[in-house]
Design goal:
Elements lengths: L9 E9 L3 E8 L5 E8 L11 H15 L10 E3 L6 E7 L9
Antiparallel strand pairs: 1-2, 2-3, 3-5, 4-5
Length: 103
């Protein structure tokens, strides 16, 4: 599994996209110079009838699955910060110049 990241090792360059769950930024990992994509998922209020934030739970599941899976057709999770009760979850992936929507 990947270790939790130190946010000060990344420099955000620009916003790539924003969606319902959060925002994706192009960034550079300062210690290596590698281009990465930083996905920031905003915590939301619990929905009526739920005692948890489904968006944050989705980020926790994404971290758990991608930390355990290694396959050439599944993107690698490089770093993460997903802490229960935190205001945001942050997931870091290799930077890709395209996504499935553009293929």
């Amino acid at each position: 599994t990947c270790a939790a990241m130190a946010l000060d090792d990344y420099k955000v360059c620009r916003r790539i996209a924003e969606g319902r769950f959060g925002t994706v930024f192009a960034a550079t990992k300062l210690s290596t110079g590698a281009k990465v994509a930083v996905k920031k998922i905003r915590a939301r209020r619990n929905l009526p009838g739920l005692d948890f934030d489904p968006w944050y739970k989705s980020a926790e599941r994404e971290r758990e699955v991608l930390s355990a899976v290694r396959h050439e057709h599944v993107i690698e999770l490089l770093d993460h910060v997903v802490e229960p009760g935190a205001a945001t979850a942050i997931l870091v992936y290799p930077y890709l110049a395209f996504d499935l929507a553009t293929m």
